Amino acid sequence: MPSDHYFSAAPASAENLRTINVTLAGRELEVTTASGIFSPDRLDAGTAVLLSNMPPLPPSGDFLDLGCGWGPITLTMALSSPHATVWAVDVNERALDLVRRTAASLGLDNVNAVTPDDVPDDVVFRTIRSNPPIRVGKSILHDMLQRWIPRLDERSDAWLVVQRNLGSDSLQRWMAATFDSSFSVHRAATGRGYRVLKVRRHGNPPTAPIAIAE
Q: What's the whole-number mean pLDDT along residues 87-106?
């Protein structure tokens, strides 16, 4: 199925529902996954690096998981901040259905699993946490980030995990050059061949140009 990717809107492959056991937000969970989505058989290494290196979440507000897949980041945020609203965004309808199934099974009523165009335009985010779909290609990835990063609230952060061999350093440089001086970009952590990149939207725009911190 050469045209069937985890970033396909409607995967053509058989669904092949299955359950896997994972630990998220300090809890042992059974989650539902399927074929035609990203990393259906395990918590992928990049997401594990992000979850182990990101700071505590705000207690409330709107959160965004961009490219949610079956939902490990979404579920972690929803469990950790039950008073927040977590937007699980993906183009893959199968992935969104899986997030809804698992959220319902866990009694999480603070998850909205939707396509990008279904997020209201007036929503701003207290945090964005993402293992972005690098393999969609640089142009589409850049368009995604230019769409969503500016929707960070003031004094709020985005945390992205990107594999070093898939261009994390060049993505860091691009973000630093692309977003205006009200944003700062730096590498927050490394592990297992991945970089965790932090994008901060400041309350008062800094006067100096954005610097890339190693």
A: 97
Q: What percentage of the chain carries pLDDT values higher than 70? A: 89
| Whole-number average pLDDT of the chain | 91
Residue 17 included in any domain: no
pTM (two decimals): 0.91
What CATH number has the domain bearing residue 186?
Answer: 3.40.50.150
Q: Per the domain annotation, does 119 fall within a domain?
A: yes
Query: What are the Cα distances from residue 209, in Å, to 97, 175, 181?
Result: 42, 12, 6
Whether 78 and 84 have beta carbons less than 8 Å apart is answered as: yes
| Boundaries of domain holding 195 | 43-213
